[in-house]
Amino acid sequence: MQISVGRPKDLEKRRRILDAAKHLFLAQGYHGCSMNQIAQAAGVTKLTVYNHFQDKAKLFTCAIADTCEQLIQTNPTQLQPDSNFCAALYEACLFSMNMVNLPEALKLDLLLMELAAQQSPLTAEFFNASHVRLSQLWQEFFTQAQQYGFIQPDDPAEQTELITSLLLGSRHQKVLLGMLAVPTSAQQQIIIQETIHIFLLRYAPKASNL
Fold first, then answer.
1. pTM above 0.85, yes or no
2. d(Cα 174, Cα 6) in Å, to the nearest integer?
3. Could you read off the pLDDT of 158-203 as tens digits, one per residue?
4. CB atoms within 10 A of CB 170
């Protein structure tokens, strides 16, 4: 029996659709834009959009995942046995702070809160593509740090929870709500230094030469 697989997907059109969807979802929210608008912005027909993505929910999920992966292009510093751990930890903290405070990242968080308030089933998928992805990078970093003896053994998820809470905390909620400005470079430096100090009080090896 011959099976028809159809024409190969046009990757250039798919990219245009994703880019248009990301822009519109971030600007207008999930319910604020339609598949028609996305098709027009991408310069394709609505049928072409549906050929690439079964429905609006699928397109949204793909667009958000693509946005998050673009934001998380640079992993926190990869550790080596002879790494300067404090310097590497500082760079990882700076990476996280810079990433979550990008305009696109702030819009993503606001969109996530909008979906959560609506009890949308898309909330979990969105959260997994963004916050869980960043958490995984931190956990990989701390797993390496433990292997090389830079920090005391513990659940990397617990260490990630501590570092991100110290870096962001309620301060980041105020940034999202427009009550505070995004920290300046000088403010970031102070926040990171204090974060590392508290983190190492808990996790520095007992005989530490950090």
1. no
2. 50
3. 999 999 999 998 999 999 989 999 999 999 999 999 999 999 999 9
4. 9
DSSP state of 194: H
pLDDT tens for each residue of 10-44: 888 999 999 999 889 888 888 888 999 999 999 99
Query: What are the helix and strand counts (H, E) for the chain?
Result: 11, 0
- CA-to-CA distance for 176 and 76, rounded, in angstroms? 24
Cα angle value 108/163/188 (rounded, 5°): 70
Kindly list the distances between the CA atom of residue 4 and the CA atoms of 7, 8, 49, 53, 114, in Å, as whole numbers in the listed order. 9, 11, 21, 19, 42
> Is residue 144 helix, strand or coil?
helix
Dihedral sign from CA coordinates of 173, 179, 182, 186: negative
